[in-house]
Each structure stands twice: as C-alpha cells, then as structure tokens.
C-alpha cells in the first residue's frame, strides 16, 4: 500500500512541475540540442524548464534565455547550429573549455541581439563565419586562443558598436581586411578600442587606411605574424594609441618619424623585423615606459637622446647597429629599470655615474667593444653584464661572467604554518581550500623588474576589488611565478580562493570566469592588456547551487519509490555475497599479480593500474617461442626486448628485465603505472605486463620501423625527406603535448631523444620508453624536485643546475631532437654540441640561415626554405637556457603545423601508405629496441660542473 501511495504522489508532483514550466518552448528546444551535443553539462540541467529550474550558467528574463555563461565547466563537444534559435540571447561565454571543438555554425549570425561573444581558450577550428558581421549590437568579440584558420572576415567591419576585438593566438592567414567599394573592412570600426591580432599567420602589408584621426583605438597588437612592407605613416594619426606591438614580423623600411606625436603610447615594440634607415626620433613620446627596437638593421648610430622620456623604465636595443659611447645621462632617467644594449658596436668607457635611477636593476652590454669601466667606490646595486667586451679580457670582476639564473617562485601569498591536505592549497589568509587556478598573461607590460613583488600588490588588490564588487564568493587571491615568455608576455600563475567553504560551486566559477574573460577586471596601467587561460575546475560541491526544493523533492520521492524494492534485493543478495566472501578473497590473492611485490627493493608501493592486462610467465614464454634468439630484437641497460605473437596474431614487443636488476623495479613500476593510463596514437601503447616467477616484463604494441635515430643514421635503410621529417616532428610533438596537457596526471617524459621516438608501418612517430618519466601529480605544481636523470646532449641545463624538473625540460630535449632532424647528427658528436654548432653558424640574413654545411644532405633537395627557417627558429626557442623563455608543447605543435603549411603539407593528413615508399629495409635488419644511445646519466650533478652547452 505504501509504495502505491508514493507512486501516486510522484505522478501528481510531476504533473504540477510540468504545468509550472515557464521557459519559451523554442528556447528550451535549442538549449536541449546544445545539451545533447555536449558532455559534462552541469548536473542540474534536468527537467523541461531551464528558466524555472535555474539551470547553472543560464540567465532568463520573462521566460527567454538571455545569457549562457559556462566558463571552465569542462564541457566537451561542438557548438550546435540550433543555437541560432535563441533569438533573445545577449551573452554567450563558453571560455576555458578546451574540449569544445569543431567550427562555429553560420547560424551564429542570427543571434541579432548578441552583445558579448567570448570563446577564449577553447578548441574551435575552421574559418570564422562571415555571418558574424550580422551581429550589429556586438560590443565584445573574443575568439582568441583557439585554432581558427583562414582570413579575418571583411564583414566584421559592419560591427559598428564593437569595442573589443580579440582574434589573437589562432592560425588566421591572409591580409588585414579594409573596406573597398561595397565591401566593409576594419577601418570602419571607429569605436573599437582593441585590435588584438598577435600570434597568427597574417601576411601582406599593414594597410595605411586602417588608421585615422577619429578612431578610438588604444591597443594595436600585431606581433608574431608574417606582415611585410613598411609601417604606414598613418599610424601617427591614431592619437589615442597606448600600446603598439609590431614585433616579430618581416616589416622593412624606415620607421615613420611622426610616431613621435603619439604622446599616450607607453609600450612600443618594434623588435625582430627588417627595419632600416635612421633610428626614429621618439622624443615626443613622453608617456613611453617600454621601448624595444632590437634585432633590426638601422643605420649605424649613437645611442639616441632620450632625456625627454622621463617615464622610461625599459630600453631594449639589442643588435641595432649602435656605436660610440653610452651616455652617462641615460642612466639618470628617474624610473629606469633595465638597459639592454647587447650585441652592438658600443665602445669607449662605460660610466654609469652616481645619479643613476634608484630603480635601475640591469645594465646588459655584453658583446660590444667597451674598453674600460668607471666603478664607484661603493659599488653598484644593479646587475651589470659586460661579458665579451675588451674590458673583460683580463678582468675577473663578477660583471665579466654571465650571472646564474635564479629560480622564479615569487608569490604574493603569506607564509602559513597550517598543514593542508595533499589536494588542497593554503590561501594567503591561511585557509585550506581548492582554488580556481589559471594563468594571467599580460601582452605588453610596461616594466621589466619582474622580481619586485611590490609591483604585484596593486594588481592583487584590483583583482579582489573586482571580484567583491560583483559579489563573488572570493576570500583571497595569490599571484606567483612571474616570468617573461618568448613573446615578451608577462605570465603569472593565479590562484583564486573561495569564501565561506573550501570549494567554489559552479555559479561562483561562472561569475569569476566571466569577470576575467569579459575584461570586466581592469588591471593597473603598468600591466597593459591581458588575457586569462583557466584550468578546468575539478572540485565542485555535491549539490548544484541552482537546484530548487521541487527538484530535490522529486529526487526524494523517486528514491522512496524504489527504496523498498532495493532493500529487498539487498537482503537477498547479502546472504549470497557473505557465503562467497571467503572464496572470493582466496581467488583474488591467487590472481593478484603483485601479491609478491617486494617493497624492500627500492620499488615503492604496489603499482596502481588502470586496465593493463596481466600475462603469466608461461604465456609470455609461449608467445616468444621460449625467448628464442630469432625473436631477440634489442637490448639495453634494462634488459632484452623480444618480438612476440599473441594468439590473435598481433605482434608485440616484450621488454624483459635482467634478473637481479636493482633499477628494474622502479622503472618497471613507473612504466606500467603511467602507460596503463595514457592512450594516444603518438604514444607507444602498453598492452600488458608480466610479474610472475621473479620476472618483470612489459608488453608493448610492436612498432616495426625502429627508432628515429636508426632512420637518421641510415641503419634502418629508410630515407627520410624533409616532408617526412616534418610529419615525424608533429607526431612526436603531439605525443608529448598529450602527456603534458591531457594525461591524468600530467607526465614529464624526462628522456626525450631520437632513440625514444619509434616509427610505425606508416612512419608515424610514437613516443616510447617511460622508465624515467615523472607524473606532475597536482595540477597546481610547477615542477618536481628530483635527482637528475636523462641523456647527455638532450638534457635541460636548467634542470641540470637546479634539479627542478618541469614540462619545459621535455621542451628543451625536443628542441635538440628538432636540430637532429635537420642535421642527422647526434647531439654530441666528436666533442661538438649540435645546439652550439647551429647557433654559431646561424646567420638570418642569408639563405637557409647559413646552415648549409650542417643540413643533412639527404633533405637538401626536398627543403622548402621558409619552412626550414621557421623550424630552426622553433628549435632554438625550445633550447633557450631559461625554461620560462621556451614555448609549451602546445605552442610547439602550432609552430610545427605552421612549418608544414609553409612546406605545402596538411598537418592533419594521413602519413604515407607504408614505409616501403621510403626505400626498403636492409636485408637482415631487425627492429632495434635498444637503450644504448649517447651517455645516459642517472645521478646528482656536482655543483662544480659546468652546465652542458
């Protein structure tokens, strides 16, 4: 009787719930289509009334959906074209959902009332639809940090209300569109304050008609593209400009002298172009804080007069043909922090004087012709670098040696004595919590003293004020690890701590994400334009904040209806389970492959596996024909590798540890733990293992074409042309990117080298050998402090010196591997280090960077010069001595894709049908699974050693 009454009440409740539904039916259908397209939607997205049930991230007014804001929710899938039915939608923010992929539907142009469209840090690709130009009320358009390709649509010029336009960090190509005839262009966006187009593949000249005197533009960011031609003189008309970044392009000609009239500009980047002619007169830029004109071919000139630039903090003029003596007056500019004039022809006596700026921290004049140095009796408080000047030929002072790089782990957090759980973090207010984390990236900071923590206090305060003013549940924020990356962006790790409990709910994350993605937060002036890349927030409360009492009641009634049946089933099953308990325990012990795992042999706790199959010794013995010599395909310090055949006919490679090997147990454990949870087409797959009868064996998929090293050395007989090497590079890079970004937990390989990149039957690259790998554990960790291990020649010098292992250590090793692909030379060959050899021979003014003697003759006939030069640039950026200056593996993947496109290759196309099209394997050649490449190092480095160069 009771269950019938419960069921009756449930039916009555459901009827009442449906009758009260208030969401517009067309809006509900559109949102339901989005829900069906996505995975990981909020758990309270149930029922037919998103508005009445207050679905997380959905804001309604009068039954119509006005806003969808779901940043950092871990959504995956695509953006359905059904979104076009949300005719009243004004805000769409799906930022920081990296697994949202696919193209933007053309129907997005039907959202005629949309004012804010923000898709920062997702995985969208394809072309930006032309229909986006129909969103006439759009104020903010942020599509940065995705994978968009193709041209910038001309139709964006129709968005007359647009204030913020950010298309940076994509793969956009073509020219900057301007109006022509009836076709609109960006020159029509007179009210737009932000043109952010950096880190794309835009080409052609910067159109002169883009700039006019009546435009509102304050930020012009065109860095790191393929723009050519001269800087248009019309740029001097845009008198509201505050930040100008034209660096890292191929601009040429003279700098327009009328730039001096831009009195509001506080950051000017012109570096890494082909600018020539006289040095520009910038004395009228009285607000200028940061000036970088490095790596151009200006006419030989003295250091220009800068006495009017009283706000200047940073002067960078490396390799700009400067000559003569450095004027003493330069150092007395009141706010000066850094003077970097290395690689010029400066000479005479260096005299910093006694009235230099109290903020001065760095004077870098290395590689000039300075003959003498006037020292003060009390010394200097700043760092002075005079390496490779005549003065230092016999001097022994500290400024005649390159300073050792200090680790950057500065933080605005307080030091707390409280002990938090391993998965929690102590806040600046000494509360243990699960913070919302990410990276703040400032594209044009106008200061250079990154180590001055007091500079970040106003930023921290502004962040808190912004969150509190929007009534967000934030207790405190912490900023840490300030560093400059290779694009001269300032990066800061950000941790945001919850108020009142130890985690954020989804509403809190949505609000915080929107404040940062929508640029509601305005940083203090020295930091300049920014963007935020968030980490997915893993810790949400058990009960969504948007669920109401009605839905909770429905859940309770539903549970009650089934409760009686469930209880009866449990009682029936309980007796059977109890009788089977003893029997099951015995069976588990018999089947447990680690029942005899010996923790005393430096092997640690029992391995924790996810899905790897266990094979008995007898099974493996059968698969390898009793480990016959004919199946022996390699050997190394760990043991031997055998080819085996499973009953299904599948070929496998079986790595068998030597008996009594002390290093085998931890390496064995590492590989099976890590590889059992990674699955990627560019990572060698672990099929199973054997831990039986004192044996330790790992069973991998068989990769038939050996290692990359064997092919480069000619041992395998496979001839790799330039196109094939690009495909191998992208495959290996994607494998490492997966380990760093998508593996759970992230993994640092620690032994990236050509011997550990295997080639399958189609010559696709697969990263192998995880014996030295280290999991990062918590996503908040920036490094792992560990004993130094790896292979000499590939090893990161920063890791070598500090014993702090980071993902950037893999990036360094991968950079060496890229140079190996170009030269086919071992990293250390006859006492010569390939990184140093390339740097010394390199000359960017000559064809193929003057590397003809180092390039492998095998690829000379197939090279496309631009792709090789870009490839060399990437490799050298990977082997920067400081990890902070190296790209991430995700950035490396993008750069290799660009190299492939320059070579006429589709980065996503399949490889060759088989390796036979690249010449046959020599007779008698077998797959060489060996570990004996170069000098494998395993131990702590003495501090007296010189880091490898």
Automatic annotation (TrEMBL):
Domain called Protein kinase: residue spans: 627-900
Name the record gives this protein: non-specific serine/threonine protein kinase
Organism, scientific name: Cinchona calisaya
Entry's localization field: Membrane
InterPro entries registered for this protein in UniProt: Kinase-like_dom_sf (IPR011009), Leu-rich_rpt (IPR001611), LRR_dom_sf (IPR032675), Prot_kinase_dom (IPR000719), Protein_kinase_ATP_BS (IPR017441), Ser-Thr/Tyr_kinase_cat_dom (IPR001245), Ser/Thr_kinase_AS (IPR008271)
GO cellular component entries: membrane
Keyword terms: ATP-binding, Glycoprotein, Kinase, Leucine-rich repeat, Membrane, Nucleotide-binding, Receptor, Repeat, Serine/threonine-protein kinase, Signal, Transferase, Transmembrane, Transmembrane helix
Main location: membrane
Membrane topology listed for this record: Single-pass type I membrane protein
Pfam families in the cross-refs: LRR_1, PK_Tyr_Ser-Thr
Keyword presence, Kinase: yes
Any one GO molecular-function label of the UniProt entry: ATP binding
Signal peptide start-end: 1-23
Enzyme Commission number, as recorded: 2.7.11.1
Transmembrane segments: 554-578
Sites where the protein binds ATP: 655
Superkingdom as given in the UniProt entry: Eukaryota
